[in-house]
């Protein structure tokens, strides 16, 4: 996922600040890089259903099993270990929502509904909250502008924005419960509320200025089915807790695990881009240079940037490439392009270096 795991319109970070230094990311396109990227990926752009299904089922299965152990184990130490495993596994499972937005359902039959049944509905993050939203982030004229739901110039904003940005995500499970257990049914009765729910509380985005358009046609029917299922599950979950069928401790552990997933994703979001654009349209190459790859030999990105998210910059060059092909595409491009190619400039060694860069930029440019 490229966006924050929180409801648009919830607690918000500061509005965009005027930059105190010129942007360094706008540039013309490097056509040699773009041509080579298309060339080396032609034979690896088909999603392999076996990989997708095996990865998803294993991640969700491990995640839910670990969640059960964390919620029921009497030994605090083992419960904590199980909770950490649950966070990492379910984070990987939920990250497939990013793949759903780029790969047509006809190329992976059944995967969209399968992901929603296994992950989207149980975790109250149905795919409609990302579908028709994330695509705007990849639009040539929208990336990095006020019309991009997934962009804020964090490097140019007030320094306190960064910790606030992360801490807000910890409230995600409460926000999801309110969204589906309360706002969904109420919005059926009050049209004005429904308009607000659709515009402000139905997108996984980080831009507080973003307002979502009402769904239409087949997508509206898909949205309504998923929202109904999520509302029923959310109301049932609250009812189970209130009646004591689901112990309060188990419920709190569930909230903590989902909160952990949201926080990890928010931290990853912080280092997915350099966040240095001031709102102007950018070339594809400039978008690439404002994005981040964290390739091997780094190992930890497998945990905090799973399902291909460690190749985020490459993904902006080849948004339709399946996650399991990004590593091979990166190896081919790294070998084929000259050392002076801009392609190499978006590779970084790890999260600490990227986080430090963002903090320093914020301290310099957002005061």
Looking at this protein, list some descriptive labels.
367 residues, mainly alpha, globular, membrane
Structural class: mainly alpha
Beta strand %: under 5%
Oligomerization state of this entry? single chain
- Unreliable spans are 4-25
Biggest beta sheet summary: none
Q: Tell me the radius of gyration.
A: 20 Å
Query: How many distinct beta strands?
Result: 0
The CA-CA distance between the termini, in Å, is: 30 Å
Keywords: Membrane, Transmembrane, Transmembrane helix
InterPro entries: FA_desaturase_dom, Fatty_acid_desaturase
Protein name: Fatty acid desaturase
Organism: Stakelama flava
Could you explain how this protein is built, in words?
The protein has 367 residues and is mainly alpha-helical. Helix 1 packs across helix 15 and helix 2 crosses helix 11. The longest helix is centred in the middle third of the chain and has 26 residues. About 6% of the residues have low confidence.
């Amino acid at each position: 996922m490229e966006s924050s795991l929180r409801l648009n319109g919830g607690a918000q970070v500061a509005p965009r600040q005027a930059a105190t230094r010129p942007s360094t990311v706008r540039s013309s396109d490097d056509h040699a890089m773009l041509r080579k990227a298309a060339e080396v990926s032609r034979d690896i752009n088909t999603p392999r259903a076996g990989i997708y299904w095996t990865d998803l089922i294993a991640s969700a299965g491990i995640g839910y099993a670990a969640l059960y152990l964390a919620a029921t184990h009497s030994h605090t130490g083992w419960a904590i270990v199980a909770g950490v495993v649950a966070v990492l596994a379910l984070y990987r499972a939920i990250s497939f929502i990013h793949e759903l937005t780029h790969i047509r359902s006809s190329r992976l039959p059944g995967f969209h509904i399968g992901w929603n049944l296994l992950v989207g509905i149980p975790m109250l993050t149905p795919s409609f909250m990302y579908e028709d939203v994330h695509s705007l982030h990849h639009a040539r004229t929208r990336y990095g502008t006020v019309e991009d739901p997934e962009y804020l110039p964090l490097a140019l904003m007030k320094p306190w924005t960064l910790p606030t940005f992360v801490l807000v995500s910890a409230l995600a499970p409460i926000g999801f419960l309110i969204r589906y257990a309360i706002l969904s049914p109420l919005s059926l009765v009050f049209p004005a509320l429904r308009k607000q729910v659709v515009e402000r509380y139905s997108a996984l985005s980080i831009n507080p200025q973003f307002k979502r358009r009402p769904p239409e046609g087949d997508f509206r029917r898909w949205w309504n089915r998923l929202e109904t299922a999520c509302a029923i599950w959310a109301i049932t979950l609250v009812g189970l807790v209130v009646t004591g069928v689901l112990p309060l401790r188990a419920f709190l552990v569930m909230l903590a695990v989902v909160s952990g997933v949201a926080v990890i994703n928010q931290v990853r979001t912080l280092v997915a881009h350099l966040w240095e654009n001031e709102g102007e349209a950018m070339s594809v190459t400039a978008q690439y240079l404002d994005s981040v790859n964290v390739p091997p030999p780094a190992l930890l990105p497998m945990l905090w940037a799973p399902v291909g998210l460690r190749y985020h910059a490459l993904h902006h060059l080849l948004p339709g490439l399946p996650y399991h092909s990004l590593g091979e595409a990166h190896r081919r491009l790294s070998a084929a392009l000259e050392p002076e190619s801009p392609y190499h400039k978006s590779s970084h060694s790890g999260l600490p270096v990227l986080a430090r860069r963002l903090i320093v930029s914020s301290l310099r440019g957002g005061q």
